[in-house]
Amino acid sequence: MKFFALLTALSLSLIAAELQPHPYALVKQEIGRGQTVMVEAGSTMCNACKEMGELLYREKQINPDRKIFFVDVGKERDAARTMKIQMIPTQIIYDGTGKEIDRHIGGFTTDALKKFLAKHKI
After folding, report:
1. Which end of the chain has the least Cβ crowding within 10 Å, N or C?
2. pTM score, two decimals?
3. What CATH superfamily classification does 2-119 receive?
4. DSSP-based three-state secondary structure for 86
């Protein structure tokens, strides 16, 4: 019985250890406010997106002030159209004026993500 309780607790902690979706309406308010912003467009139903969510969660734990957001475009179809998402996961970087300055389609390794964030000073 204790084993199953431990397993359940461990499973729940793993589920919670990924970046949680942000409503696109709120994310739009953060874009163009003087700071570089990264938007992860994905879905909670996508395995590669979940892996990215875990990596991004860890990065946010290292520096909670980073402007990194996850938009679930599986549920927010209008956001997918607005951001011109063709495949998920997609990472979009907006500069402080709100201009899109970079876009990456697909997942990252931990090292590649760190380099991508450092390149954009996020």
Report:
1. N
2. 0.84
3. Glutaredoxin (3.40.30.10)
4. coil
